[in-house]
């Protein structure tokens, strides 16, 4: 029998310091670092299409658009790397994370879907600045939008047409989101 594994907890400061030097991207959840998995071709193409479509809309509104490498602080000791995030608020003092996005996008893959739908959904929607959270499926042509409106969270699913973009006051055509993307096969 081997030695039991020890759960390693990090302070936010230690995490940020280690992450700046680490060759591996890790998210921090309640002080515990978790290595991130690599992404599929479909995932990367979807993120690229979304960046291409969202960038001019974000710039027009005077906002910043981040892709995959900017951390989002969602709690005292929790940091994620969203696939995309739009931030219109002034940046925090620390140049290695944001705190107040108005829109966050995660591309779903079989290995991350549960975390994106449960853990991240609750934490993102708890951010006062957030107006919308978009889940884009890499295995089926489908996008799901959670948006805050008049103190409520509204949910809509889209398989065609255009997805409204809270805080950017525009819409995202699904045809363009999925252009050139061969969807992943669902395991099983």
UniProtKB/TrEMBL annotation:
Gene3D superfamilies, sorted: tt1808, chain A (3.90.1570.10)
Is the keyword Signal assigned to this protein? no
InterPro entries in the cross-refs: Nuclease_put_TT1808 (IPR012296), Restrct_endonuc-II-like (IPR011335), Uma2 (IPR008538)
Q: Enumerate the UniProt keywords alphabetically.
A: Endonuclease, Hydrolase, Nuclease
Q: Which GO terms describe its molecular function?
A: endonuclease activity
**Domain (Putative restriction endonuclease): residue spans on this chain:** 13-158
- Transferase as UniProt keyword: no
**Pfam families found in the cross-reference section:** Uma2
Q: What is this protein called?
A: Uma2 family endonuclease
